[in-house]
Amino acid sequence: MDPESFFGSLTSMDVLGLVAGTLTTIAFVPQLLKVWSSKSAKDISYGMFILFVSGIVLWEVYGWGIHSFPVILFNVITFILGCAILTLKFIFDRRDQNEKPD
Fold it and tell me: Long-range contacts for 33-42 (Cβ within 8 Å, ≥24 apart)?
């Protein structure tokens, strides 16, 4: 499918979904950058992020079920960002635990 026919087939609801997905996905970038630059994720809740990533997986299944490109696209990206934050939290928490004097 060439880009011209793809973009020409987008409905106003697809565009709305693309804008909404862009905004909600980009919202996680500052958090990821802060965790990365500070090398700390002590204020990040494992419970919240595990629930969040689980919800993203369900949204992804839903997106495939309804064949919604915006839902599929942005939930894949958000899943990657959420997993990156969780991974950094695990790494930094483990490092901090190992640095504590006995």
Answer: 35/85, 35/88, 35/89, 35/92, 36/88, 39/92, 40/92, 40/96, 41/85, 41/88, 41/89, 41/92, 41/93, 42/92, 42/93, 42/96
